[in-house]
Amino acid sequence: MSHKSNSLKQLALQKFKKNFWGVFSFYFIVFVGLVSVFAYVFAPDNSQYANQMHLAIHSQRPGFTVTMLTLPSQLEIEQSAFDKLFFGKKNTDTEIPISEYAINNNTLTYTEYAADGLKGVEKTVKLNSFPNKNIAHYIKEKTFLFGTDKYGRDLLSRVLVGARISFFIGFVAVFISLIIGVFMGSVAGYFGGKVDAVIMWIINVTWSIPTLLLVIAITLALGKGFWQVFIAVGLTMWVEVARVVRGQIISTKEMQYVTAARALGFNDFRIITKHILPNIMAPVIVISAANFAAAILIESGLSFLGIGAQPPMASWGAMIKDHYNYIILGKPYLAIIPGLCIMSLVMAFMLIGNALRDALDVKN
């Protein structure tokens, strides 16, 4: 039996490897996962939430380059390397876009950057205020590959950091939905009768409420925030899992190996967890991939409505909300870039779900 099980797994793996789009989607999802975990390593702006604002250079085109003067802060904040790596640097320095500068004696004179051909304000600062006497260390050319948003923040950094919310909400929501859905579906399908009737009533009531409306209600009850959205989305996605598990268990519980397990005196918990569930996980895996995509879309919709991840936290949905009016103002990339990110990640999960369905289909 074990040899046969291993052979089926190897056969499914071979079929999956032959699906180009499935394999491509898998590697793309792994890539996005690595980017989301180590976002602050890849992001040009590694401050917390990539929230370094420069209002003088707001809504600039991709590839925009400007000279940036950094004025060091006297405030020192202790921060561990782990905290910087995964949660960003608590930056207290002030970055100022400048158009020109000059050094005379012990004074740095600079002109702040001004768009549309205007001349910026001219200011001076003493060189003594810089800990490092090498002034070139504080004046550098900075290029914004994706341009800047309406607050002058680096759009590329915001996109990279925003991937974290969209990616991890899939994991958390699917994890919650699997725990609740597998439990409810297993109990309903295995025991049947009144237990099944009660659980099916709960499933049908939950199913009848529009998903986005239910998520909004749960979010408002739990409060606006990062984890509240994760929990709210997870609590609305268990219904599909429960229905699939229930149907699979109803068709499986009368199989010979289940009858043999009962004859050997195994309890119901062991029969469900050790004998039935391992044999019905194929459709559950496929629907989990679809739930990943659905969770990303729901979170983006909530952020667009303003009840998802709250500012200054970066979120692809919130980025579209902030810039959708720029589509008709001549700078559509501010909304299109995060929109393409959402589309590509959702499509990758849908493609890998289709590939898994084909690979796990024993009839082909």
TrEMBL record:
Where is it located?
Cell membrane
Source species: Thalassobellus suaedae
Coarse class of the protein's main subcellular location: membrane
Q: Which family does it belong to?
A: Belongs to the binding-protein-dependent transport system permease family.
Query: Ranges for the ABC transmembrane type-1 domain?
Result: 163-353
Q: What is the designated name of this protein?
A: ABC transporter permease
Membrane topology summary: Multi-pass membrane protein
Entry-linked CDD domains = TM_PBP2
InterPro entries given in the database record:
BP-dependent_transpt_permease, MetI-like, MetI-like_sf, OppC_N
